[in-house]
Structures are given as structure tokens and as C-alpha cells.
Design goal:
Elements lengths: L1 H8 L23 H7 L6 H4 L11 E4 L3 E5 L5 E4 L1 H10 L7 H4 L1 E2 L7 E2 L5 E9 L1 H4 L9 H20 L5 E7 L4 E10 L1 E7 L2 H4 L3 H4 L11 E7 L13 E2 L18 E6 L10 H30 L3 H30 L2 H17 L2 H37 L1 H18 L4 H18 L2 H18 L9 H8 L3 H11 L5 H9 L3 H8 L2 H15 L5 H21 L14 E6 L3 E4 L2 E3 L2 E3 L1 H6 L11 H8 L13 E6 L11 E3 L5 E8 L17 E5 H11 L3 H4 L6
Antiparallel strand pairs: 1-2, 1-6, 2-3, 3-10, 4-9, 5-9, 6-8, 7-8, 9-10, 10-11, 12-13, 12-18, 14-15, 16-17, 17-20, 18-19, 19-20
Helix pairs in contact: 1-22, 4-11, 10-11, 10-12, 10-13, 10-16, 12-13, 13-16, 13-21, 13-22, 14-15, 14-20, 14-21, 15-19, 16-18
The structure holds aspartic acid.
Aspartic acid binds next to strand 19.
Length: about 725
């Protein structure tokens, strides 16, 4: 009976999809989703979107770096993504004298395009459902740990088989908490060059003030080109490389966007938690996010203070500030959205419904009652541990010197025991040190560390204080500041001279010294706390995986009105919806698009985020919109009900024919709750209208070399 039940519920691929909510796997569109998409207006077939036998839309969409999406828009390997996705690269090419973040950058010939070491672009070659192979040998009475071990061994084989005799890379991802496994094969390009970026006053117009906010007027795009070897295959950077010839590139539509139009987004959403149990969501929004918000505020304040004192520091920390501020503001939106949508109570209702329905069938209740009870207990028992672990992660990831010390130690340990590679390792250590000292401001790091440690100690149960804590009490009278000052004074990692000396005279004995460095000891002591508890602790994680697998299967069987799609996991997904405005609050209704008039309305010389670029202002004032401003208005951004998330930044927004109408770059604040609970009334993705991109290229930048590569309808 139970076996039958699971086969039934895990035919999740055939559940109905609704415009708006859902992030679908492109391989599985044939199962119902494509029919729903066509009913909503799509004119393409499933094979036009995903196929391994013909060029299709998936061949024009790439994973850009390790956290964004991009799309091919010319036969010469030209790629468009967000300005905020290219930000770090633009920053890396900038100096105080030649500041591309402030002034923008346009390559007017191929030879002016700028290489970006370390940046990769990955094409999805194919997806395969490997559930059966991955779970081969898994027996019903196996523990979750044994199940995982078998799955990992199988996966290693599947992957090596998949990439055999190719230059591809592959990975297997779990869906629905280990109920399904899919193989993703990628072709990864490594010679990616910067082609163009507007000044931040355009590409980041509205800045942090407008981030996550609608209405929006941000020209959030940048252009890169993929280079390949002469055989059109990935090759490391080489001046002899040639522009990549893609299987497919997108046609741009400058025909305009209207309310109600069908839209879809193909891209790489990174992480959602749509099936989080009520107890889990309560901890996230009641405990974890409020404390993390406090930590980020501290960090942002410190960065801001130092950045305002020096243009060099401002440039050095621009990317870090942007990244830290982005999540900070989203978290505030999520807490608000969870309250507004009453998401915790909605989840409780679903959980009760599952119990009620299960009660009517003795076999189900026997199965589900313990699952639900254990989930309740799990969150009650582990609340403080989960909080400590999450805050620990947040803290550690913002301590730059501590992270450097730990990475350096790991590499040094390898160098000490692997004599053949000693020279290579030394070079790597030197590179690591070069990167660290170039990018860090020790003053910012010191203040940040003291501030965040203080918040950590205030927020978590003393049970989760790191081993170093008694030292802070005894030797420094509990003064976190004094302890941190001492760390920075005593450590070799804060002194370039000492660090490079260790590298030059590297020996196994030096490693001993490194491991007893105060920063190494601090990192170890702190990460011990973090690693011991959820979500990193293997046993708790595994227990949760099993509980959630059972729980979601129960939901699917009992609540058939709900849409079921796997959580985002940075694999390619397709979302679809329509261009539409929304009602944000009582008497506040938002239109679906913005125009350049809003740029001038927002202009405020007192607020840096609302500084309008001089050349742009003249064009706007003279309504010099060229072909892109129908009826003397220039479209800038629009919103639609596509279900997107972080990682979808830079994704193509396509019309019913698969033509590029916009570049996805954000969500509205009211809608950030969609990572946990999609609310069709308010959840909207924000996109840059492709006509604004074309206007900037033609009228602002005069980049005709770029324009002539494009196919525009
Ligand atoms: N702007 C967002 C980001 O940077 C994209 C999104 O989450 O919708 O993560």
C-alpha cells in the first residue's frame, strides 16, 4: 500500500502548473507544463525550449560565473547579463584614475575587450533523469546514511560515464529531498571578456535605495563575449582564441510589451525553501533573519564609514558592500512578506490537513503521524542550535582575515606533505596572499569582526560559544574589542611581510607555526561550533532529508490543489507568467512598466543613488529616444508574474515566440517572500526592457559595433 502510495505521489512531474508559481525542469515540459504554457499564450513547442537533437532556447542560456544567468545574443558569442552580475569584474578592471564603475566601459573593437581570469560561463549540454541508476542497490530498510552512501557511489559512476571521452563537466542534483536525481552535463568556457557596461549611474541607478523596489529605473546590464579555441571548444585565455559560435542565440524584440502578455524566464534560480515546515519557517523569520539583519547592518555601517573617507576604499569595497546590502534588504522583505501572507499559519493549516486526511486511512496515519510529530519535535529541540549555526556561518563568512587564515592553512598543510607539488603550492599560496592583501582593508575587517562577534554572543545560547570564549573572558576581561585588536596585532596574517616570508621559506615546521597563529586558532574554534550543528551536521541533515521526503510526498497526495515543483538548486529552470502590475497595499496599485520620465523625476543631486548621468539627462530631456521610444516615451523596466529567485539575475525574459524582451534583475520587496511562499497577488519579477538596453547602446554609447551583431525585430 505504501509502495503504491509513493509511486503515485512521486509522479509529480504530471502535476498541473499554473501561470505564476513554479520553477520547472526544462527536460520535463512535455509532461503537462508545456500544455499549460501554451494555454497561457506560448507559441513554441517543448523541443523549441529544451532538446538535445536540435538547437533550442536552452542553448542560448548560460550559467554566468557561479551565481548568475546570462544569454547569448549574437552569432559572435556576445552575452548579456546584469550589471550587478558583472559588477565584480568591472570593479576589478577599475582604478581610481580609470574607473569603469563610475564612467562605464565600451569596447569599440574586439581588441579592446577585457579578459577576466577565473570567470566561467557554462552551457547546459543535457539533463537526464538518473533516479533509478542513482538509487540502484538502495534497500527499503537502509538508514538514510547508507542510502546516501550507495547513491554517492552510483553517482560517481554515472558522472564518470557521462563525461567519458568528452571535455564536459557533470553533476547530479537531488530533487524533492532525495526522491529524484537528475544528471546535468555542462560545457564550461573559461575565456570570457568584458565588452560593455554602462556607468553605475545607469547600471545601478537607484542603488541600494531602490534595490528590491518597484517602480524601478535601473539599466542593469553588462555585456561579455565568450572566446573559444579555433575548434569552437573551451580553451584557457589566449589572444589567439576566437569568438565562440553558439548553437543558438536570441532574437531581440523591440516591438513593445503590454499588460497581460505571456512571458517566460529561463535561468538558474539558486535556492528556495517552498516546503519548509511551519516550525522551520518560524525559526527563520522569528530568530535567524532578525539576528542576521543586525549583523549585516553592523557590517554595512562599518564599510560605509570607511568607504566615505577614501575613494580607493570605496572602489575596493564596492562589490562587498553591494553583496552584503542586497541580502540584508531582501531578508527584511521576507520577514514582512511572511507576516503579510500569514505564511506560517498557512503552513500549519496544510500540516493539519495532512494529518486529517491521513487519519481517514489507517495505513497513512501510521506512516505520517510520526513524520509530522518528529518535524515538530525537531524544530523545537534544535531551535537554538540552528540559530547558532546560521549565525556562525554568517559571522565566519564576513571575517575576511579569518577566512584567509583558514584557506592559507589548508593549502600550507597540503604543501607541507606533498613534496612534489611544493613549488606549485607555494605559487598558489603567493597568489592567495596577493588577492587577500589587495582586496582587504584590515581596519574594516577588524571593526567588523568585533561588532559581529558581539552580536553573535548576544544572540546565541552560551552553549554555542566557541572554545575561545573563556580566553576572551579571562585574558581580555570579556572585552571583544580588546581580543580582536590583539588578534590583529599578533597574527602573521595581518602582516604582508611576515606572510610572504613564510611562503618564501616554506617548510613543514612553518606549518606548525601557522596552525598556532591566533587567527588560525580563532577560526578553528569558531568553525567547530558552526560545523557541529544543523545544517552542516550530517546526521541531522540526513534525518531532515528523510522527514521532508516523506512529508512532501504526503502533501502531494493530500493537497492536490497546490502546485508542486522542486525547490531551486541552481539548476536550469523555466518559469512563466504574464506582464502584470499589482496592488501593493490599500489604495496603492502599481503599473506594469516604467519610463524614462521616472528617471528625471527621481533625480536628486543630494542622493548619490539618484544622480543622473549628464549625457543621459540631455538625451532624456531632448526626448532623443531614436527607434526605441514609441510615442515619445522611453520604456525602462517592467514587471511580470514569473517565479524567480536569486541566481535568476541576468536571465532572459522571453515572449511567446521565444524572443528576448527583457533581462530579469530583481523582484519587488513585497514579493521576496516567494522563496518560501509564492503569493500570486504580489510576487513579481523585475526586468529591464530590452528597448532601454538598445537605446543605451545606440544613443548613449554609440556602440554600433555591438548593435550590428544583434538580430532585432
Ligand atoms: N536581484 C536579485 C538578486 O540579486 C534577483 C532575485 O533574487 O530576484 O539575488
Amino acid at each position: 500500500m505504501i509502495k503504491y502510495f509513493f509511486t503515485l505521489v512521486f509522479s509529480w512531474l504530471s502535476f498541473y502548473g499554473f501561470a505564476g508559481e513554479g520553477m520547472w525542469i526544462p527536460l520535463l515540459l512535455e509532461n503537462r507544463t508545456i500544455a499549460d504554457m501554451q494555454a497561457a499564450g506560448l507559441k513554441l513547442s517543448a523541443a523549441d525550449i529544451y532538446s538535445i537533437n536540435q538547437a533550442c532556447l536552452k542553448d542560448a542560456v548560460v550559467m554566468f560565473g557561479k551565481g548568475c544567468t546570462g544569454e547569448l545574443i549574437s552569432p559572435g558569442g556576445l552575452l548579456i547579463t546584469n550589471h550587478h552580475c558583472g559588477y565584480g569584474r568591472i570593479q576589478a578592471h577599475s582604478t581610481v584614475e580609470k574607473d569603469y564603475l563610475t564612467d562605464g566601459f565600451w569596447a569599440y573593437s574586439r581588441s579592446e575587450e577585457l579578459p577576466n581570469p577565473g570567470l566561467t560561463v557554462s552551457f547546459l549540454v543535457r539533463i537526464e533523469d538518473v533516479t533509478e541508476k542513482a538509487l540502484q542497490g538502495v534497500l527499503p530498510d537502509m538508514s538514510e546514511k547508507q542510502r546516501n552512501e550507495v547513491m554517492k557511489l552510483n553517482s560517481a559512476e554515472i558522472i564518470s560515464e557521462a563525461v567519458k571521452n568528452t571535455h564536459y563537466e557533470a553533476e547530479i542534483e537531488s530533487f524533492f529531498f532525495g526522491s529524484d536525481y537528475f544528471l546535468f552535463v555542462y560545457e564550461v568556457f573559461k575565456d570570457i571578456r568584458l565588452v560593455g557596461a554602462p556607468p553605475s549611474a545607469i547600471g545601478k541607478f537607484g542603488g541600494d535605495t531602490d534595490n528590491w523596489i518597484w517602480p524601478r529605473h535601473t539599466g542593469d546590464f553588462s555585456l561579455f563575449r565568450i572566446y573559444a579555441g579555433k575548434d569552437n571548444k573551451p580553451a584557457p585565455f589566449d589572444t589567439a582564441n576566437v569568438p565562440y559560435r553558439p548553437k543558438k542565440y536570441l532574437t531581440l524584440s523591440a516591438q513593445g510589451i503590454h499588460e497581460g502578455d505571456f512571458t517566460m524566464v529561463l535561468g538558474y534560480p539558486a535556492k528556495t525553501d517552498e516546503y519548509l515546515y511551519s516550525g522551520g519557517l518560524k525559526i527563520v523569520t522569528g530568530d535567524i533573519l532578525p539576528a542576521k539583519i543586525k549583523m549585516r547592518e553592523e557590517r554595512l555601517k562599518i564599510m560605509q564609514e570607511e568607504m566615505s573617507k577614501s575613494p580607493a576604499v570605496k572602489l575596493q569595497y564596492a562589490g562587498k558592500y553591494q553583496g552584503a546590502g542586497n541580502a540584508w534588504k531582501k531578508w527584511i522583505g521576507i520577514i514582512d512578506g511572511v507576516q503579510r501572507t500569514d505564511a506560517v499559519n498557512k503552513k500549519i493549516q496544510q500540516e493539519l490537513m495532512l494529518t486529517d486526511t491521513a487519519l481517514s486511512e489507517p495505513c497513512r496515519i501510521k506512516y505520517f503521524e510520526p513524520v509530522l510529530r518528529r518535524l515538530d519535535d525537531f524544530y523545537a529541540e534544535n531551535r537554538v542550535g540552528i540559530l547558532a549555526s546560521d549565525l556562525g556561518h554568517e559571522a565566519l563568512s564576513s571575517f575576511e582575515t579569518a577566512l584567509f587564515a583558514s584557506n592559507f592553512d589548508n593549502k600550507a598543510l597540503m604543501a607541507a606533505y606533498d613534496t612534489c607539488d611544493r613549488q606549485v603550492m607555494k605559487d598558489q599560496l603567493r597568489n592567495m596572499a596577493d588577492g587577500f592583501f589587495k582586496n582587504v582593508n584590515l581596519n574594516i575587517d577588524r571593526k567588523t569582526m568585533a561588532g559581529i562577534l558581539r552580536i553573535y554572543f548576544e544572540s546565541v545560547d552560551p552553549l554555542y560559544y566557541p572554545e575561545i570564549y573563556p580566553t576572551i573572558q579571562d585574558r581580555f576581561d570579556g572585552e571583544v574589542n580588546a581580543y580582536v585588536d590583539w588578534l590583529f596585532r599578533k597574527s602573521i596574517f595581518t602582516d604582508p611581510g611576515k606572510t610572504y616570508k613564510i611562503i618564501d621559506h616554506f617548510s613543514p615546521r612553518a606549518v606548525k607555526k601557522l596552525l598556532s597563529d591566533p587567527f588560525s586558532r580563532f577560526y578553528q574554534s569558531f568553525s567547530d561550533v558552526v560545523v557541529s550543528y544543523y545544517p552542516v551536521s550530517d546526521s541531522l541533515d540526513l534525518e531532515l532529508q528523510r522527514l521532508y521526503r516523506d512529508y512532501v510526498s504526503g502533501l502531494m497526495a493530500t493537497d492536490t490543489n497546490r502546485v508542486y515543483y522542486p525547490d531551486a538548486n541552481f539548476t536550469m529552470r523555466i518559469a512563466y507568467g504574464k506582464v502584470e502590475g499589482y496592488k501593493a497595499a490599500d489604495a496603492i496599485t502599481y503599473d506594469y512598466h516604467t519610463t524614462a520620465t521616472g528617471i528625471l523625476e527621481k533625480e536628486d543631486p543630494e542622493i548619490a543613488d539618484y544622480t543622473v548621468d549628464e549625457k543621459l539627462r540631455l538625451l532624456l530631456e531632448h526626448k532623443d529616444f531614436g527607434r526605441y521610444g514609441p510615442d515619445a516615451t522611453l520604456p525602462v523596466c517592467f514587471i511580470a508574474s514569473n517565479h524567480t529567485s536569486g541566481g535568476n539575475s541576468g536571465s532572459p525574459v522571453l515572449d511567446k515566440e521565444g524572443r528576448l524582451i527583457g533581462i530579469n534583475f530583481d523582484r519587488n520587496w513585497e514579493g521576496t517572500v516567494s522563496d518560501y511562499e509564492y503569493d500570486p497577488a504580489v510576487c513579481r519579477n523585475i526586468s529591464l526592457d530590452i528597448r532601454y538596453v538598445l537605446f543605451i547602446l545606440e544613443k548613449y554609447a554609440g556602440a554600433f559595433n555591438i548593435l550590428q551583431e544583434l538580430t532585432i525585430e
